[in-house]
Please model this.
Amino acid sequence: VTTKYGQLTPALIAKLKKIIGETNVLTQEEEREKYTCDEMPVPKPHLPDVVVKPTDTESVAKVMVFANEHKIPVTPRGGGTGLVGGAVPIFGGILLSLERMNKIIEIDTHNFVAVVEAGVTLSDLYKAAEEHGLYYPVYPGETNATVGGTVATNAGGMRAVKYGVTRHFVLGLTAVLSSGQIIRTGGKFVKYTTGYDLTQLLVGSEGTLAIITETILRLNTPPAKTEVLFIPFPSIEGAIDTVPEILRLGNLPAGIEFMERDIIEKVREHTGKEIPHHEHPAFLMIILETDSQEALHEAARAIQEVATKHGAIDVFLPPSERAKRELLEAREQFYPVMKRLGILEIGDAVVPRSRIPDFVKRIKLISTEHGMPIIAYGHAGDGNVHLHPLGHGMDREEWNKKLPGVFKDIYQAAKELGGTVSGEHGIGIDKKAYLSANVDKDLIQTMVSIKKALDPNLILNPGKILNIPR
Ligand code: LAC
Ligand code: ZN
Model:
């Protein structure tokens, strides 16, 4: 089966420049080179034929009309911080960067809503909300990510236990279909039963169904108090077995993260950060956000009791705001540090929360069976486990031979425990094989039908999530 797309000839590039303006189309190789990769750990770079940087939804629509007519692949891109190659233009064609669509259109303090363009970064959104006394709780840890990118991947992160993931904050979208049609879904309201929920269909669709250009996001009032508890345990089992009981306490923590000494040591070594109790084997990091000092005390006290019962060595409370910030920053650095260490991959399998202890045990067995070290850490309160198989000391060839077997067993274990392939990073190109191996055929067939209905020429982010020959 061949995959055939139209070619961007010099004449067509000239036409494209006319359509959206010469300065919004980059053709020089040095300019295009910045757009060949995202943050996927084992990069597969591809050079786009052109990069277009539209400044409004209408221009995006014009690009899509052009691309659809000439069957040119279009790969949308936000901050380029994705982890599965979702923004890599594997068939060349047009790389459509949303970076110039970075306007905060409105922070509506009466309706607790932000209306922002897709290219707004999370750090700009956090700031704008804060300036208006409001709060956007989604916290993937990478603040250079754009809103559009996090909506397209349904990003999760470290406050999902209490607040949920990106999906739970998206009230409406402006999106451009492959035909160039512009659709506006949802609105500034929190209840919605008016036909199919296309907002939620587009959340997590990784740019394969439409190009998201504008979003309406729900905001919260900020918590009055924040605390970070860092709790060392003599074993990973002890740490993780504590989690269900913490969840049953009520007053949910914002986040419950687990980690072992291996990653803590690497972060210390590569960032110079001092991490308290770093000599212990395993840890929980618990983020508390409450409406009062009293509630904070009560939550911390209850967690301390549960943790001690489960064998915690200590419960460390950072003595200052700065120390608190340092702990969170150390956690944010996990992936950037790991990525510097040579050949490795990252998984983000998800299992029902109660199965995390079993899943982590299975990962350790798989690591031993394959003779490949695997570092595991992540969002214990959400059942979302990051795992890094490490290819240190291997050459690429050996790694390429061994890795698929390791991941096959990992995802098989996740499936047996009632889980699935990706909790927050998405499928992109990196996890396609595992999606097709682990997800029910009828479900995949339904996804293919939806894709073909919305993008009959298969030009939108082709080769991502699903393999559909053209
Ligand atoms: C994290 C990213 C990798 O949790 O999802 O650090
Ligand atoms: Zn994560």
